[in-house]
What we know:
- The chain is mainly α.
- The chain contains twelve helices and no strands.
Amino acid sequence: MIQFDRKIIGGLIVFGLVVSTILYILFPLGLVRFFTDRDLLTRFITEHRTYAAFIFIGLQALQVIAAPIPGEVTGFVGGMLFGNCGGILYSTIGLTIGSWLAFLLARVAGRPLVEKLVKPEIIDRYDYVMKHKGIALAFLMFLIPGFPKDYLCYLLGLGHMGHRNFLIVSTTGRFLGTVLLTLEGSFFRNRHYAAFFTVLGLSILCILLVMVYRVNIERWIRSIRAAQQLKHRAARSRQKRTGGED
């Protein structure tokens, strides 16, 4: 049974405000269409060229916090509108802000609230992530295509990882995917269709491989965690023996 202390009550208030704001922005105002309609998003940002970069960064951050919203459309549009360098830069800034806000929300609100945002099967599948604070494991999960990276931000917020380490692994781990989506958008805008289909094909191939070998990949990641746990236990045992001898 959940004990509703001040932390839980404060988390409920924060959670309610965040979710209410997101739902109001996405649905009554029709903003959810920007994440699914590439032409609508492109036209909207083009019409507001003065503030285009800020609008795009805000949309990228929002699609992370509203985890079920797909980020592929915004990443692609970033390449179309801002080119390679601008698209990668603005996407990275937006994704970093959104990832940190999701992490912070989970850290403040706690598991009862994350369970309302993240599907139970995803929490059960990646429960071991919350018990682990190594940056290498988290980096791999952000790096590998097909893993639920936005949900992962919430799950890591429930764990022991510090804010700085989280920002490092989430930013660097997302970078490859950001580059690929931006390149696709940039190549498409410049009508470099051979390069566009090459990058698109590589992206699809990576996703298909992850889908086919997902179980093996997850087993491998779990084995890494288990090996690290054994290493830490062995180190603690040696320290205890050394202390006993002294």
